[in-house]
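[#protein-structures] MJ: dropping Glycosyltransferase here for a structure pass
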Amino acid sequence: MNGDVRPVDLVSVVIPARNAETTIAAQLEALCRQTYQGPWEVVVVENGSSDGTRALLRCWRQRMPQLRVVDCAEARGVNHARNLGCRHAHGDFVLMCDADDVVAPGWMAGLVDALRTDPAVGGALERRLLNGPVALAARPPKKSDALLDTFGFLPYPAGANCGFHRELWNRLGGFDESYRYGGDDTEFFWRAQLAGYRLAFAPHAVVHYRLRDETRAIARQFYGYGRSHPKLYREFAGHGMPSSRPADAARAWWTLLVQTPDLVGPVDRRARFLAQLALRTGRLVSSARYRRCYL
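AK: finished. structure tokens for Glycosyltransferase:
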């Protein structure tokens, strides 16, 4: 993994999509406005939508010649869709974004520039443009000046804004499809670093990130996140991932107890409370399942 500058003949953008009828057009329009001057393609993996996503994509294929659509209705899951998209992609550089976000004009150029010298890269997530107060209460904006580092172990990018060399994906055997929701991107980029691949940050590769804005959807998402954490711990504790601290868990549960009145309070407080309750509950359930305590 030397620092030589790599040429690139084609860039592939892989987008998993399921029930994205109301959002994917904005993402495709944003890709059409990219400042990157080299050749690129878009591979949308249609992952069993029940809305009008397929029909919308058929219309877009007439407008966007570099768009290809891959059917993936037989098996759902974001990592299954990512792997299928990578198998159908023709580029040596593979970039990933989501169907419900909007990439900034310099997104592709920013990731490609970083991939010329590093085999894997993540960009910045901007959370204010597409989200209202309820969504932002559940997931307050953070500084976007570095890769994510939630676990005090290794950094990682979000799957909604990342890129890598195809040979890296080949060597790792793709994304782990047992991670169906939560930890799906973290696990892949941790394995990459443990295999000796460098991971860079591209601050100018910005994605406007769309958050859940309904309390039930927020709670479901955070429950999935929580369930993935003991699984990550089971697989990476031997590589140095630290355990959760009992004092932190006790403090979090005590805070939830004190904040229980928020359940009947304003919707933004209710969303924030349910997000944290779901996260902690997911950790409890998964700790029992994997017999590895990560609370």
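MJ: nice. The first strand starts at residue 11 and ends at 17.
AK: one more thing. The two ends are 36 Å apart (CA to CA).
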